[in-house]
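Notes to self after the Tuesday call (sharing in case useful).
The group wants a holo model before anyone commits to mutagenesis around the pocket. I volunteered. Ligand is protoporphyrin IX containing FE. Logging inputs and output together so the record is complete.
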Amino acid sequence: MEILAIFPSWLLTSVLVIFMFNIFLRRLKSNKSSISVDPKLPPNPPKLPIIGNLHHLVGKPHHQALWQLSQKYGPVMLVHIGSKPFLVISSSSMAKQILKTQDHIFCSRPMNYASKRITYNFLDVAFSPQSDRRREMRKILVSEFFNRKRAKFLNVLAMENDSMVRSLSLHPPNTVVNLNKIMLATISGVICKVGFGVNFSEEPLKGVSWGKMLEESMVVLNGSFVDSFPWIGRIIDHFSGWNGRLERCFNDLDSYIEMVIDQHHNRTEPVTSDDDKDFVQVLLELSSVDTASDYRLTKEDVKAHVMDVLTGGIDTTVVTAVWAMSEIARNPRVMKKLQSEIRNCASRTQNAHELDIKKMTYLNSVVKETLRLHPPAPLLIPHKSLSDSHIGGYDVFCGTTVLINGWGIGRDVSTWGENAAEFYPERFENLDVDYGRGSCDLIPFGGGRRSCPAIKTAPETVEAVIANLLYWFDWELPNGVKNDDLDMQEEGTLIIRRKLPLLLVATKHYGDDNKQLLA
Ligand code: HEM
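Result:
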């Protein structure tokens, strides 16, 4: 009563009206959103002002730091980098929610500053947000690069392996071989010839090292400060030289792409047979004024496609092949068993390109085991939600960026058992686990609408290279390095590679017959 006496009635009425209106607005909002007025947010590690949880990630690879945090905060947690929230997923069942059950909601990508620049303002497939246009671009990539070029791919894969074996056979005995260089040359050869008709790595542009440029693209695509710290980040990116680095990287890649398009325009004898056409030629035809297709590409669309193949295809496959050879080299039991399978499946007189990898089931398990322990993109590419949703009993707002820890899921003892950290390809012998199929226990290629379109061809490429290296050569660690002492340190953020190059000694298995057999 005293309160009523102190405040005039018009004031009380106004407060009451505002209060009721507020409740009405909240109801209206919560009707539109599936999230209640008091959202149940996922657990999050304690944040610091301004930097959020950045201090938790400093000094460790991000996938490892996030995996450690998930052991305490659970498989669905919220982490803040600066002002930006990230939903971090760390179990196979929660990954299945994102990549399969609610794939239609989580199939977009966050837009970051570097990916915008590198992809010609989100014209590509890999980094652009979900849209009808992107779906069309993905269809073109899948049908023209992967499906229609299958015969060309198998042929080029065989030829590149052949030339890898020939050039290795010319080395004097006991030479130390840099496997990173060998894999880069061979795999670039395959992807560039199928994609662009020309092996870029054999025609480096002046002053730009091919391998370094691809590595650099992965560094800059990981993101700039401005993505998480909108105001101060802009200044840091400018004065730290980051923006200049991004611009240089873009210009280097763009010069390669311009070169390949010019080469196609300047061809004196155009390729007319569909089988012989490379991906770029098909794209240029789809961009020509008299294309019969419903979807006419612009020159920038063509460039964005080439950029995806360059940045998404080569480094990932090379890194996988190098990790596979590292694990094989430090596990002599696996090497022996694998060589015996490869040599039994392929007769001694066959040419390198006749190795039939389909018969080699142990080889298939070795590559799966490599991708389980060393997925090149340990946190996949970030996903983004298109509407409000619920994951693991928690509310997730529309527009949330999602990181899926494929690396951690691949090492989870609750799925893989106590020997989860061990390289043991036999575990796949009685397991019906395939990349992204069924469960999400093994997701080096992601899943759902944003899964990697090379989910079939990339493992085949790695298997073919490994089969040829182990068929024709015996391999040892150099200078008395013991198996257990082989340095396996990781380096990188978006793509995790070996910190040190892999150096091994190759001995021709068939001695001087190698040369004759290959002749
Ligand atoms: C061992 C080799 C490879 C690995 C481990 C790998 C891994 C991945 C991963 C993790 C993603 C993201 C999936 C997701 O966000 O859910 C991805 C997407 C993608 N990859 Fe691969 N990749 C490999 C090879 C390739 C190759 C050879 C190409 C092309 C020539 C390629 C082109 C792409 C593209 C275009 C996307 C974006 C798909 C989309 O957003 O719709 N990748 N890859």
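Two things stood out.
Residues 125-126, 138, 141, 191, 308-309, 312-313, 316-317, 320, 376-377, 380-381, 383, 444-447, 450-454, 458 surround protoporphyrin IX containing FE (CB under 6 Å).
The CA atoms of residues 116 and 122 lie 5 Å apart.
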